[in-house]
Amino acid sequence: MKAIVNVALKQGVLDDQGKATHHALDTLGFKEVVKDVRIGKQIILELNSSSKEEAQAEVTKMCEKLLANTVIEDYNITITE
Amino acid sequence: MKAIVNVALKQGVLDDQGKATHHALDTLGFKEVVKDVRIGKQIILELNSSSKEEAQAEVTKMCEKLLANTVIEDYNITITE
Asked: What CATH number should be reported for the domain holding residue A19?
């Protein structure tokens, strides 16, 4: 089973990396096109779980313990085959 | 219009961050559950494009020029709204 975890900074938290990328895109000629850039992490886990429910529960624990800093980040989990 | 760009290391390229995370998950008690971890970036762009086709073309240019290192990374683009 496979889990895709997207971790992004909460709304309102300064996104340095996103700001720098936005600025770089502006200087590369995309000033008119780009309104906002935000950068997060995508974590792809290969799991030995027997059911989607079990996988979801385990990955939620992993997010709370390690994968996300829940003070400043939100995460969402997608479980696929 | 919104574009979501997922950038991940190509298969075969050593994923240090993924390896370290895998190890950390093992020591936290997920040794039986986790088979593999890979970590990539998720870039969320807010765009001023008038059509999906235009947005797709612009974001492809951004990926080739800045957002991905195409020697070692793959990217995929999803346009929404």
From this structure: 3.30.1280.10
Total domains, chain A: 1
Q: How far is CA A17 from the centre of its chain?
A: 13
The reply to whether residue A45 touches residue B39, judged by beta carbons under 8 angstroms, is no
User: What is the C-alpha radius of gyration for chain A, rounded to an integer number of angstroms?
Assistant: 16
The model's confidence at residue A81, banded by pLDDT at 50, 70 and 90, is confident
Residues A15-72 pLDDT 10s = 999 999 999 999 999 999 999 999 999 999 999 999 999 999 999 999 999 999 999 9
Query: What ipTM, to 2 d.p.?
Result: 0.90
Q: How far apart are CA A39 and CA A60, in angstroms?
A: 21
Supply B52's token pair.
């999906």
B54 is written with which tokens?
A: 């235009």
Q: Nearest-CA neighbor of A7 among A79, A70, A81? A: A70
The answer to whether A36 contacts chain B (CB < 8 Å) is yes
Domain span holding position B46:
2-80
Give the residue from chain A lying closest to B36, CA to CA.
Answer: A46
